[in-house]
Structure to design on (367 residues):
């Protein structure tokens, strides 16, 4: 089921009632979510992710704008009539019910011609449980399950009615690192197997990048960029998006464009291929960690702090007065021999890993 958001806006009255003001939680969001895809909705806490999801589910009414499921306008439709499955960070299982009863629960509300017999409900619950591989735990109570298993029950419960759209709001946040990794792969598999259009909300860029067909990057209610994870990483529209994606994060320097070159401090670290296209002046220079090439005669000199061995790669940690990050992190191949006693380290930069941003607007400057 394709989901269309059209100029979707949600304003909340300010929580401090004395101020006659409002928060724009979602600001003019327009996007067509393709049928059968997994979309990662990504952004820092408070950027409007949950509100967007609640608008799509119908738990919140938009201040303006429209939502379509396929060609049907569902903006005024109550949540129970939209055919959405919801999973939250807190699993919200019924503690006194068994796993099977928890999964079956939404089926008990079906009325009229949709009403199911007990046997049909049990079969559907088993099907959903198999999908998330908890069919061996049907008689247990939630308190007898691990966090990861509880979250699977919550996912099975959201899937049992075969929703048109599956909405997941930070579903992995309560799990430990290993389970998080495992469960996110499960979600990706289930999504591919069922082909249900899925929106996955997270503040964790790595999580979103790893399983999404497309990511939507939000900040302060505004969508900054939508695209395939790799293209958003390779082609961020502004410094916020560039900084939000990638571990270790992009290194940001105060720099200058002058004489057809990019300067950081006194060093001209990179030539600009078509200097006429770029205005001279102060800029921010972003360099991805993988954009550094070790070279004794390199054009960019940094103060070496330490070298961290990571197996296949080596992380060179250094400093520079013009760097906005506490330390510069560069990832180089472990085959490099680095003199760890040296005071400085010299690099050349890979042009396709260097980004320029406007000093005021922080928008990307193409060069
Ligand atoms: P996220 O899920 O990305 O952390 P939310 O969608 O929960 O963000 O919130 C977006 C903004 O809207 C925040 O500034 C939040 O304080 C505000 N907000 C969310 N729900 C309400 C509400 N019911 N009343 C007032 N403000 C709200
Ligand atoms: Mg939230």
């Amino acid at each position: 089921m394709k989901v269309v958001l059209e100029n979707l806006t949600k304003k909340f009255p300010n929580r401090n009632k004395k101020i006659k003001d409002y928060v724009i939680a979602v600001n003019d969001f327009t996007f067509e979510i393709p049928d059968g895809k997994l979309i990662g909705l990504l952004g820092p806490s408070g950027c409007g992710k949950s509100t967007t999801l609640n608008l799509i589910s119908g738990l919140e009414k938009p201040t303006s704008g429209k939502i379509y499921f396929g060609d049907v306008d569902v903006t005024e439709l109550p949540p129970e009539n939209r055919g959405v499955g919801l999973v939250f960070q807190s699993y919200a299982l019924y503690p006194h019910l068994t796993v099977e009863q928890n999964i079956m629960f939404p089926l008990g509300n079906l009325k009229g011609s949709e009403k199911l017999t007990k046997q049909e409900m049990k079969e559907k619950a088993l099907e959903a449980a198999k999908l998330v591989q908890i069919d061996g735990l049907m008689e247990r109570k939630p308190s007898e399950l691990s966090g990861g298993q509880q979250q699977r029950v919550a996912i099975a419960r959201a899937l049992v009615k075969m929703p048109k759209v599956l909405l997941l709001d930070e579903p992995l946040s309560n799990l430990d690192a290993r389970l998080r990794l495992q469960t996110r792969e499960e979600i990706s598999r289930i999504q591919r197997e069922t082909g249900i259009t899925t929106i996955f909300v997270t503040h964790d860029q790595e999580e979103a990048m790893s399983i999404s067909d497309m990511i939507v990057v939000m900040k302060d209610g505004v969508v900054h960029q939508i695209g395939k994870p790799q293209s958003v990483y390779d082609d961020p529209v502004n410094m916020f998006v560039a900084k939000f994606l990638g571990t270790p994060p992009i290194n940001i320097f105060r720099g200058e464009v002058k004489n057809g070159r990019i300067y950081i401090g006194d060093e001209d670290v990179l030539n600009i291929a078509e200097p006429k296209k770029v205005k001279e002046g102060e800029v921010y220079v972003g360099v991805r960690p993988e954009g550094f090439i070790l070279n004794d005669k390199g054009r960019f000199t940094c103060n070496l702090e330490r070298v961290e061995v990571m197996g296949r790669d080596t992380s060179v940690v250094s400093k520079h007065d013009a760097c906005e990050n506490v330390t510069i992190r560069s990832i180089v191949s472990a085959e490099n021999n680095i003199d760890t006693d040296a005071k400085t380290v010299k690099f050349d930069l890979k042009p396709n890993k260097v980004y320029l941003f406007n000093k005021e607007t922080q928008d990307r400057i193409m060069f």
In short: DSSP finds eight helices and 21 strands in the chain.
